[in-house]
Design a protein that fits this description.
The structure holds two protein chains of two kinds.
Chain A (H helix, E strand, L loop, with lengths): L2 H10 L11 H29 L7 H4 L14 H25 L3 H31 L2 E5 L2 E5 L14 H9 L3 H11 L5 H5 L3 H7 L2 H4 L2 E2 L4 H32 L2 H5 L3 H26 L1
Parallel strand pairs in A: 1-3
Antiparallel strand pairs in A: 1-2
Helix pairs in contact in A: 2-11, 2-13, 4-5, 4-13, 5-11, 7-9, 11-13
Chain B lengths: L17 H34 L5 H26 L7 H11 L1 H23 L1 H7 L22
Helix pairs in contact in B: 1-2
The chains are: A mainly alpha, B mainly alpha.
Amino acid sequence: MATTATVHQTKWWSGGKSPFNLEYGKLMMWYFLMSDAFTFGAFLISYGSIRFSQNFWPDPNVVFNAFPGAGHANLPLAFVSVMTFILIISSVTMVLAVHAGHKGDKAGVVKWLFWTIVGGVAFLSCQAWEWHHLITGEHAVLVDGKIDIIGQTMRGNPWGSLVSHDAALAALQNTPHETLVNLAHQSNHGSSHEQLAALTDKDLISKINLDELHVRTKGPIAFGGYFYGITGFHGFHVFSGVVINIVMLMMTQKNVFQNRGHYLMIEKAGLYWHFVDLVWVFVFLCFYLI
Amino acid sequence: MQHPAFEEVTIHHEHADDGTFYKKVKKTTLLLSVITVIELVIGLAIYNIHKGENPNEFLILAFKGMVCILTLAKAYYIVSVFMHLGDEIRNMIMTIVIPLLLFIWFIAAFIWDGNSYKNLRNTYDKHFQESTMPAKHGAHKEEAKPAAPASGKE
């Protein structure tokens, strides 16, 4: 009675056969990626949970509207769409590298791995610029009845709701001199800090263009921690993916895979790289689109 | 065809035909790009609705739901075509996909919890409510009285 079952077991699970018809490394890479998906999922869901517990959350189109070299132009979503396309294209070049590996085409593997690495480095550079821009940004925020200039950090969030013209004007009366100088400088790039510092508070206030300044209240502090935490964790994955790809490129050039007779390692590195792209799709959704 | 490295593994999918392979990759790339562009258009639409005088909350929610569905479509194409999960043995696919189904409960439960926390705080923590509730749109009028109703929050 049990014989048929035993025969079947021998066939599939007792050695000599891979039940999933996969080599060990690739299967384990899949399980690692699944566990990593849970890590990212937990982070993103925690972010969602906090976001739903707030009465106000900043509109991403207001936060992410800058583009390198475009100054103060309002370009919502423009830069992040560039980053998204960079990652999609680098995923495609990775597919081509894996395909070249299947054919044992060393030159093809080298070429496409190289472009994948270029894409990864370009993405990381974009992220570095974006973080720098957010951290060093100068935004007028209404705090305790006066105007403060803050950037997007882990401790402060300048993206609360807009303050009315009158309330902002009243707050300017209580604002310290140096802050007024900085605010006036934002509306009058022609005059130097020294020239503005010599003016009285009243003259400075008259020079400040409140409609251009968009004074806001402080937004939810959790925004910074989640944004830098999750995009940073993703950026770390991109970075390690780039390092893995560089190692793969060096091994290919040293003929390690050619001597081994197969390029299966490239396939596993490719799985990891595609996963990085996959996670970005969700980070893009959660932070920039909704 | 036998696997080059492992005797017990046979290759079950075709790598050979270059023409179909490039066509598939090209098609998937195009699809991912088009979906991303649609997502961006929807994102900008949400931005413009937000800017208006009386944003239509339902329309915003509908657009956000659409972006979520499009994102899932993108994820499906990346996993099944680029990562070749679609070519694996069914049982192997299930060992990946079934654990991930936990996310359905995970997302629903935690977002529900966050929302409930907000409602409780708005009810019992008046300071939280007054300091975080955004002013209604077109707020050039006088500040609303602190005792203003919680704008529909139970």
